[in-house]
Amino acid sequence: MGDKLKDIINKQNQQQNSVAEQLDDVVQLVGFMIGDEEYAVPILSIQEIIKPFSWTRVPQVPSYVLGVFNLRGAVIPLIDLRLKFGLPAKKHSEDTRFIVMRNGDDVAGFVIDRLTMAIRIKKENIGPAPDTVIGDDTIIEGVGKQEDKIITILKVNKLLERDF
Amino acid sequence: MDEFQEILQDFLVESFELVEKLDEDLVELESNPDDLELLNGIFRVAHTVKGASSFLNFDVLTHLTHHMEDVLNRARHGELSITPDIMDVILESVDLMKALLEKIRDTSSDDGIDVSACVARLDKITGGSGNVETPVASAAPVEEVAEETTQESSEESAEDEDEIDYDSMSPEEVEAEIERLLAQRQEEDRKKREAKIAAGEKVPEMPNPDEGKEEAQEKKAEPKKEAAPAPTPAPTKAVSSEKKEAPKAAAPARKTPAQVEQTIRVDVKRLDHLMNLIGELVLAKNRLIKINDDVEERYEGEEFLEELNQVVSIVSLVTTDLQIAVMKTRMLPIGKVFNKFPRMIRDLSRELNKKIELIISGEETELDKSIVEEIGDPLVHIIRNSCDHGIEPPEERVAKGKPEMGTITLKAYNEGNQIVIQIDDDGKGLDPEMLKNKSLEKGIITEKEADSMSDKEAFTLIFRPGFSTAAAVTSVSGRGVGMDVVKTNIEKLNGIIDIDSEVGKGTSMKLKIPLTLAIIQALLVGVQEEHYAIPLASVLETVRISKDEIYTVEGKSVMRLRDDVLSLVHIGDIFEVERILDASEHAYVVVLGLGTSKLGLIVDTLVGQEEIVIKSLGDYLKGIEGIAGATIRGDGGVTLIVDVVALMSMAKDVKTTTLTEGTEGGSAVKEKTQASDYVVMIVDDSKTDRMIMRKALEPMGITLVEAGDGQEALNILKSGDYNFDAMLIDIEMPRMDGYSLASEIKKYNRYKNLPLIAVTSRTSKSDRMRGVESGMVEYITKPYSADYLASVVQRNVNFKAEFL
To answer: Is B283 on the interface with A (CB under 8 A)?
Structure first.
């Protein structure tokens, strides 16, 4: 009887642990398209996602910094990820969104072509960035493997870092 | 411990205020040595600080103030007359007092500053009128006595204070007091421990070789307190007189808190937050006004407009008042800065052996706290400069027939939205030729620049880095750094410096500074489709000019402005604005003035004056040259604020592009290979009318795009999705009518040759005239036949016959 009880308790413990592990091991991401590639950033670093509206050009910045826009009274920079990733500019369409990302006090809006979906991905399915881009400077956090595709996960702090 | 901190804070705040006033009073006392009222006031300050510091166990401070008090007490009783030498010692002790207070503020302890030398000197003054000249052969014993008496009397005075205090204390206060005394004990222990460490510290004010010895003595003095030696005659007198004085001195000190209740000390952060909120409100107000204007336009004559108007004007009125009220809470009288100058002038005149009088007026003029903090340094530099280079030595002045005493006037007053601080001296003045030669010598300017320089421009040379007119570098000035700092600091505050000078008569300098920094008046200007805000404080005037008034000299644009030649720069060249709109025949020049330099900024349009709230661009975009920040406009859009300082320096390197360039004739025209390559836009608010036109044109096989009003049409056009060959435009439409649409379109270079065809039921001649004026090429009146419309379109798009 005592053994049985122990067994049950042990089993329960194991289950609980595995649940905790599962929670720990899953990363929630938001996926989006830029050109033909799918990228993702952690959901917790996203402040909001908004439809495009007008912005003000700022002089003397690289072309991928489109300018600044007014987000409820705050002046926030707007960065076009297409241009930043070296793709040709494209007109904003119905699907275009501004993703406002935050890391500490740094906030910026990023123009993306299209949202895909919220993704739960296990940590073990995230591989390191390819050897060729490994280093402190890379903006790639890792590569998420899913059944049919791979997703590039971006480092939000690097995206929000001024690099000009 | 918190209780103690609180008391300490109050003590420090009060002491600093008192000491600040002390400086001023002392200098005044020197010129009026017999002013008993003044003397009494000064004595009371020393006494109050002494009382409080002994209460808080700051032995060094007590020691010092006690001896100051002694000297002042004697002077008060007429036993001593204040000579400049005595005054020097007193002022020195005030400096020490300040240093001690600062030390207490930073470390909560007054250890580590040596006061013995000063005390000895103070003691010499009080140590019997005959004793004054006695050399300090046996300084140590004298100090020992001083040491003892201090401890003695401080203890007594502390007792005095205690008695008074307990009487007037509420139960809670007594409890707090007990707690505080406990804390004090701990503090004392801690201090003793720290004293050992502090002994090694550097003394900022007074170099003293035998500091270690003094420290040791002080420690020795402590046990002696228990021994309570008989006080020497002189100190007894001091103590007794002090006792007599104590109630009197205490009385005003107790009264002050009652008056102070009228004010509240508020954390500056809270005020800043309040200011931010007001900023948001101002933005909302601007927006409301804009919406009101729009509504007014659309619903002209409606009754509810009246009401809306009233509400809007009340809101904007109250907002403005509120803003002013909050701004006022942040205002400090400039006297806070001015106060230190009498003392400085006194020290300088003694150092330089000159006779200088300082006349201050307008010290009650108020300025934003942040500006008051920034303005101190530049003023120090300017006044030092006036003393050193401006005012001549007495002999020279007499020889020139001027009064021996030189005068510097420091005056502050309001002028519109600015405050003006004016510094005048009646010294030798600035010699423009000498300034030019000197600058040439130092390679600051070229020969050519010197020749074309006006006197006023020559005066500004003193603000160039590396410039110094003093033949010899003195400890006061002449290193060629100071005035450069003045210019930088004033420009940082968006201020303007104006110098006037006459050789032999003197120099007058005016600093014009905006009242506040967070919300400013700005001039909004337009260039192409963009808007920029220029701080109004930097705008001297605006001028409308035609293109042929602009001359080019050595690749730089200039224009004549009355008697001056003004260098020009196009705002579009500085901010890399794409030239998409057609340049008009006229332009506006915004004349910017900063410090002493001027620049003409060419803009396309003047939008108007608006109150704007400065917002930072954030970390990501900070430090963009020429941009000081951004503001949110009434329509919710962001407008960048021009950094006039940076703009001035950028203007030097900008290459001018001629204003008439950029007529490449639009985008390359593609060869039409089929009928559907022709694209025509139909703009009409009536769906039926659009349908009729579509029916008439569809047989041709061309592509048709429809728009419901002018605004929509303009947006489609600007989006660049189509290359239109012609547009059919109705005149009467909501939002934007046909005429406005046509004139908007014609502003763009690339649409200059786009045929615009009016299709309307308006038939009068004046309507036709307006059509032509706004750039329409054809005028079709409704009703029309389908064939006629088709033929007009074909003609205007150069429809190739083979597609028919």
So the answer is: yes
- The whole-angstrom separation of Cα B202 and Cα B67 is 23
A162 vs B: CB within 8 A: yes
Chain B contacts of A72, Cβ < 8 Å? none
Q: Domain-by-domain residue ranges, chain A? A: 2-159
Write the CATH number for B189: 1.20.120.160
Averaged pLDDT, B116-123: 79
Residue A41's identity, in one-letter code, is V
- Amino acid B229 reads P
Instruction: Residue A109: name the closest of A75, A58, A154, A59 by CA.
Output: A75
Is residue B524 within 8 A of residue B638, CB to CB? The reply is: no
pLDDT of residue B671: 64
pLDDT tens profile B640-662: 998 887 888 888 776 655 444 44
Q: Which of A60, A70, A106 sits opposite B636 (nearest CB)?
A: A70
Q: To the nearest whole angstrom, how far is the Cα of B575 from the nearest Cα of chain A?
A: 5
Paired with B556 in beta bridges are B553
| Residue of B575, B638, B643, B716 to mutate, testing the A interface (most A Cβ within 10 Å of its Cβ) | B638
Residues B717, B640 within the same domain: no
> Looking at the annotation, which residues of B are catalytic?
47, 69, 385
Q: Is B625 on the interface with A (CB under 8 A)?
A: yes
Nearest to B378 by CA among B646, B597, B595: B595
Number of domains in chain B: 5
- Rank B69-73, B169-173, B311-315 by mean pLDDT and report only the highest: B311-315
B501 and B378 belong to one structural domain: yes
Contact status of A68 with chain B (Cβ, < 8 Å): yes
A2-159 belongs to CATH 2.40.50.180: yes
pLDDT in tens, B142-173: 344 444 444 444 444 444 444 444 555 566 66
Q: Please name the residues in contact with B439: beta carbons below 8 A apart, sequence gap of 6 or more.
A: B445, B450, B461, B464, B467
Asked whether residue B70 is domain-assigned, the answer is: yes
B190 and B308, same domain (yes or no) = no
Model pLDDT, residue B639: 92
* CB-CB under 8 Å, B619 with A162: yes
Q: Which of residues 31-60 of A touch B (CB under 8 A)?
A: 54-60
Is this complex scored with an ipTM above 0.85?
Answer: no
Which of B573, B621, B632 to substitute to test the interface with A, most A CBs within 10 Å?
A: B621
Residue listed under structure tokens 């006779």: B355
CB pair distance less than 8 Å for B621 and A69: no
Q: Are residues B366 and B249 located together in one domain of the fold?
A: no
Print the domain residue range for B239: 2-255
Statement: the pTM of the whole predicted model exceeds 0.80: no
Query: Which range has the top average pLDDT, A40-44, B325-329, B488-492?
Result: A40-44
Per residue in B15-29, pLDDT (tens digit) is 777 777 777 777 777
Q: Which of B512, B490, B532 is nearest to B626 (CA)?
A: B532
B621/A68 Cβ within 8 A:
yes
The CATH number linked to B714 is: 3.40.50.2300
What is the per-residue pLDDT across B333-349, written as a single tens digit (0 to 9) for each?
888 888 888 888 888 88
pLDDT surpassing 80 at residue A73: no
Interchain proximity A91–B719, CB inside 8 Å: yes
Q: What angle do CA A130, A133, A138 make, to 5 degrees?
A: 120
Q: What are phi and psi of A15, to 5 degrees?
A: -60, -45
**CB pairs below 8 Å between A and B: how many?**
69
Residue B229's pLDDT is: 44
A82-92 pLDDT, tens digit per residue, is: 888 888 888 88
